[in-house]
Design goal:
The protein has 3 helices and 5 strands, in the order E-E-E-H-E-H-E-H. It has helices at about 45-50, 80-90, 95-100, and strands spanning about 10-15, 20-25, 35-40, 65, 90.
Length: about 100
């Protein structure tokens, strides 16, 4: 699948100190960009919180990158390494939602 890596993305991760987290960004190589939240009860709840940062009519133009399988390893990556991982696991938002149903 050819993913447009310039599209905004919701990045999901799970850290032992923060629980389920979401980061909404349009620059995966800049860890200070966008907005993020932590402490959600589930990855779906984290994604829903990140959706609030996106205009409703723009949501289907976003991707999701679920890096929760990395656990605490997620925070060990540099911005460049993390950005590369995010881009490797991007899927269109609509596909991610369909898989969760």
């Amino acid at each position: 699948m050819d993913i447009n890596q310039t599209r905004p993305v919701i990045v999901l991760n799970t850290l032992s100190t923060s629980g389920h987290c979401a980061w909404f960004t349009d620059d995966v190589f800049n860890g200070d960009s966008g907005c993020s939240g932590a402490g959600y009860a589930s990855l779906v709840e984290a994604a829903e919180a990140a959706e609030d940062a996106c205009e409703p009519n723009e949501l289907m133009k976003c991707d999701v990158s679920d890096l929760s399988y990395l656990g605490d390893e997620y925070s060990q990556y540099s911005d460049t390494e993390r950005g590369d991982k995010i881009n490797q696991h991007r899927i269109p938002y609509a596909d991610w939602i369909a898989a969760k149903r």
